[in-house]
Amino acid sequence: MRVKQVYILLLFLLLASSCGLDESMREAEKWRLSLSEKDKKPYGTWLARQSLPYYFRGAVITDYNAGFRFTNLSTSNGRFNTGRKLLVLHGLDFKISDKEWQTLQQFITQGNEVLLFCSRLDETIAKDLKCSKTDGAEDDPMFKYLRVSNKGKVSLASDTNTKYGYEGRSIKSVFYLDTVSSQMDELESFITDTPVIESPTTAQAITDTAATGITTGNNSNQPIDDTNTYNEVSKPGYLTRDILGYSGGMPNLVRYQIGDGHLTIHAAPLVLSNYFLLQDNNVRYLTGIWQTLPDDITTIYWDSYYKRSGDSSQPDVLWRYPATRLAVILAFFAMLMYILFEGKRKQREIPVIAALKNESVSFVETVGRLYFNKGNHKNLAEKMSTQFLEWVRLNYFINTNLLDENFIHQLTIKSGKPESTVRGLVEMITDVKKSATKIDDAYLYQLYNTIQLFYKK
To answer: pTM above 0.70?
Structure first.
């Protein structure tokens, strides 16, 4: 009875643990970081994607897949120079190849807008924009259970008194302008609540730049005052740089003018998540971001890349690095040499071998020579006689059991040989079988020649 109770208890514990494990798995899946526009879970971006038709009425919206390469940007939309376009890029790691970055800049130069939300920025872009970015660690496993305080962390330059935030994964990441340094000890101050120190005004920054040729403003590790909006002169080729938003007093939403268009970068991709937008009045933060964009946008491209690699599956990747390019050239040359020299036939043509013939008679003659050389004439005569009688049965269909007058008569008729020849051969074969005579060389020679007369028709 006790054993049965133990089994029942173990079964109950097993069921309880499996239910707990299943619940834990469902909870982990619920809070999984996907950033997909099709995902309605907390860290999907379904709400942000669905908001586009309300803010950009009449615009045609196209979703790109995660593997879309920007080198195909001009051919994918078909109307590259028709109307103003907006490309929204949203995810964590944003890496891009040099060729894609050139194509993206051409796209912007023609009067289009690019809005990039990323956790980690490509080094090439960061270098060209003269900025560094802190790692928001949005995908850090430590933030799995969503109890990290991000209350009141972000704001817009248009209304710095209104703070937005939530309790969830990090939205504290910021940009460090006018530097290409990526050392984390320098960037740590970006995500801390340090005292606000006033920076020069926009007019003063532009005046100093015009006088000295050096950009002033946010060019130190000190946090900036988020009560002002700065319009600063940046590197040649980039006309202006506007700070449109802040996180903890540091810029997290920056816009660069490139040609007739703009590149806007945001340091906290999770501000587009369903979980962020559904808390407090955070949807107003998204509204403020959309309102910074032009009103005449006719086409929108949405790309939830999640984690993007700069490498491409296209053949031009092989030519990007000198070592790889040389290896491909050498491999192609070696293959060509192999085809030219190893493709030739090395072996001579195999001669045609005629089919084997029935050489039974020749075999017997050969064996006979062996017996003759040994001097065993009687044994050789018996084998010659046996072979001849076998040949008569196969060719003339005559019974050879009795070598009588009837046999002589039939063999004479069918062979066409003289009766005297046939009779003499039969008598010799009979003498061999009965051992009635001494078989010497002369006798063996005569027997052989007589038999040969029948083989030769």
So the answer is: no
